[in-house]
Structure formats: structure tokens, C-alpha cells
């Protein structure tokens, strides 16, 4: 990302900064749901987990990944907002390349998603008695890989959507599918056997797997290498598809 992309990124961060309620909602709502469901998760705690592990250690990572998946479409609305404001053509006429525009629009939401997930983990410690048995650097690496992957998928959804309403529909359906079939909303052990076969096809599966390695099994950087590698692989695939499909001159309709 060049200088023009960095300027777009700073502008998007300023816009996000005007919506503190959205940031807090992305922390408060998952922690409320984790508090309500941690009792249900207790019976699903793996037997190889460290001593003292309870339902919160399953519910919190799951809700973090689920809400990140449900919010994957947020970067797309940054694009459609410019169409609605009539500033997209001005942005295209600037020295910024298409790569600068896409990277500058998406990267602030990667930061936003990372902050929300990390904020959820930190808040859950005093509120739910949540514990991380493994390495915090490894945990942050998994969270960053998750945020980067899902926000890149958001860029892909933007590329294939012609209207903001289409983007909203696609992101809602895909977010629910990612969260449910990746084992975020409900542990895979409680789902039908066929879900085990398809779950690795979703990045959320690898995000949950990496978080469980750190939270439940005292994992460090070595233990999350495979899940993070899988997340980066999905990111590369989504980025490649976005590059192939995204058209800066394509007409889009903002239906705000």
C-alpha cells in the first residue's frame, strides 16, 4: 500500500472513530451471548483441556469468531458509502491506484475487527472468569489472521455485489454459514457428523481451532502455525478472487 492508500486508510479510521457505539456493540453483544451460553458449552469442553477450563473458554472464542464473520461485510459498506456520497469518481480520479483504494478501505476494518475481538477477550477475564492458558502473542496472531481473512472476504463480497442491499444479503448469509459450519456458534462436537467433513472448508474453523489451541491447550506460536497458515491461505485466495472480479469503474448503487 502506497502513500495514497495510507491517506485513504487514515480517512477511513477517522470515519470509524465517529462511530464509537459500533465498536462497543461489537464487544458488548458477544460477551452478553457468551455469558448466556457458557453453561451450555461446559459439557463440550474437551477432556484434554487444562484444569479449571469451563464453558467461558469455549463460548468467548466462539462468539469472537462468529461476530467477526457476521461483520465481514463491513468493509464493503465503506465502498458503497462513497457511491452514496458521490465521492467515488473523485477517489478514482485521484493518484490512488485500485490497489491503494481497496487496501486503504479494507485495512481499517481489519484493525477494527482485531480491536473488537481482543477487547472481548480482555473484558471476559473479569466479567466471566475467562482464562487464557497459553501464549497471548499466539492468541493475537490468530485474531489478526482471522480479522485479515474475513475482511478480505468482505472485499470479495463487495466485488460481486451491485447494490448495498445485495451486499447486506450476501454478507448475512455467508456470515451465518461461516459461524455455524465453522464451529463458532456451536462446538463441532454438538453438530451432526457431516459438519465435521465440511468445516475445514471455512476459515472460521481454523480460527476457532487456533484459539482453542491457545485458550484450552496452553498452545504457543508453534501450535497455531497450521491454523494461521490456513487463514493466510484463505486470505490469499479471497484477495486473488477480489483482484480478478473488482472493477473500479463498475456502477454500484447505494441504498441507504
Automatic annotation (TrEMBL):
Keywords assigned: Antibiotic resistance, Cell membrane, Membrane, Transmembrane, Transmembrane helix, Transport
Bilayer topology annotation: Multi-pass membrane protein
Keyword Cell membrane on entry: yes
Upper lineage: Bacteria, Bacillati, Actinomycetota, Actinomycetes, Kitasatosporales
Limits of the ABC transmembrane type-2 domain: 21-249
Annotated protein name in UniProt: Transport permease protein
Localization terms from the record: Cell membrane; Membrane
TM spans (from-to): 21-41, 61-80, 109-130, 136-160, 167-186, 224-246
Pfam family, one: ABC2_membrane
Record's keyword annotation contains Transport: yes
InterPro entries named in the record: ABC2_TM, ABC2_TM_bact-type, ABC_2_transport, Nod_factor_ABC_transporter
Xref: PANTHER family: ABC-TYPE MULTIDRUG TRANSPORT SYSTEM, PERMEASE COMPONENT (PTHR43229:SF6), NODULATION PROTEIN J (PTHR43229)
Family classification: Belongs to the ABC-2 integral membrane protein family.
Principal cellular location given in the protein's record: membrane
Annotated PROSITE patterns: ABC_TM2
